[in-house]
Amino acid sequence: MIPDPSWPPGPLRFLAPLLRATVIFMADGVQVAASDEAILVARLRQGEASAFEELVRGHAPPMLAVCRRLLRNHEQDAQDALQDAFVSVFKAIGSFEGGARLSTWLHRIAVNAALMKLRAKRRRPERGIEDLLPRFGEDGHYLEPPAPWDDRVEAAETRAIVREAIDRLPEGYRTALLLRDIEELSNEQAAEVLGITPNALKIRVHRAHQALRTLLDGRFREAHQ
Amino acid sequence: MTCSEFTEFLDAYLAGDISPAERDEFKRHLAACKQCVDYLATYERTVKLGKDAFEEPGCDVADKVPEDLVKAILAARNRK
């Protein structure tokens, strides 16, 4: 049963989410988060202005983080994509079926909005990835033999190095890697978003891993010596 | 199996996306090839480093959304 969204009235209205969550917590233990979400969706469908504000304030930060990652931290583009995402959310909230988590649905919309922005900005033909893949002689052996990496690079420094290397990947490979490894879409979901087959997606992610390894190899092998 | 073939199907190998016979062939190659052992180790570390690269505080959910942007989004909803 969905509680009456107009209760409590007047100045105590700001307590409504807390009170509802408490009631549900008492009734059903750990189901608080999911139940809160169902109530929020019901209030959104009823067009309650405070529910939209709650939605935006609560879910915009992770959605903006997605847009920033996919749009290489170009802040204006990320903010534009977030606005586009919420326009889509406001239009489609009536058709949200509740089968998936609200946060999952919003994440997917943010991914799509960021990719639309990325496609709109892509003017130059995509750079190839071949130079970053391992090279082999006719006998199938490495032309540049692999070597172990140093473990001593500080975590924060390493993350910055890796983010910078990811940003150097050709766009299609970078996007595939981010969708699968960072945004945690399945092969099928990432393939659908990019308009390619799941098999092509797997190949693209593998190439991205190989290229990223090549880019990091220089940094970590140097530190080893 | 050559080193070239090893690297080509490495992702499938790590994902368990190959047959038991192919897996045995991978293992035989690894037992005999130090360079592919190093390649595998650095490849796996690359995948993990990639996944961890954005987990730093300040570059994920902790990111603040500018108040102007929140207001613009809510205003867009009111114009709908």
Task: Supply database-style keywords.
heterodimer; A: 225 residues; mainly alpha; Rna Polymerase Sigma Factor, Chain: A; Arc Repressor Mutant, subunit A; 2 domains; 9 helices; 65% helix; 0% strand; elongated; disordered N terminus; B: 80 residues; 5 helices
Description:
The complex is a heterodimer of chains A (225) and B (80). Chain A is mainly alpha-helical and 225 residues long. In chain A, 65% of the residues lie in helices and 0% in strands. Chain A has nine helices and no strands. Chain A has helices at 16-28, 32-45, 49-70, 75-92, 102-121, 155-167, 171-182, 187-194, 198-224. In chain A, helix 2 (32-45) crosses helix 3, helix 3 packs across helix 4 and helix 3 crosses helix 5. Chain B has five helices and no strands. The longest helix of chain B has 19 residues, at 34-52. The chains are: A mainly alpha (225), B mainly alpha (80). Chains A and B meet through helix 3, helix 4, helix 6, helix 7 and helix 9 of A and helix 1, helix 2, helix 4 and helix 5 of B.
Provide the CATH superfamily of the largest domain in chain A: RNA polymerase sigma factor, region 2, helix turn helix motif
Largest sheet of chain A: none
State the shape of chain A.
Answer: elongated
Number of strands of chain B: 0
Mean pLDDT across residues of chain A: 83
Class of secondary structure makeup of chain A: mainly alpha
- Strand residue content of chain A: under 5%
One letter per element, helices H and strands E, the order of chain B comes to HHHHH
Layout of SSEs?
The complex is a heterodimer of chains A (225) and B (80).
Chain A: H1 16-28, H2 32-45, H3 49-70, H4 75-92, H5 102-121, H6 155-167, H7 171-182, H8 187-194, H9 198-224
Helix pairs in contact in A: 1-2, 2-3, 3-4, 3-5, 4-5, 6-9, 7-9, 8-9
Chain B: H1 3-8, H2 10-14, H3 20-32, H4 34-52, H5 67-79
Summarize the structure.
Chain A has helices spanning 16-28, 32-45, 49-70, 75-92, 102-121, 155-167, 171-182, 187-194, 198-224.
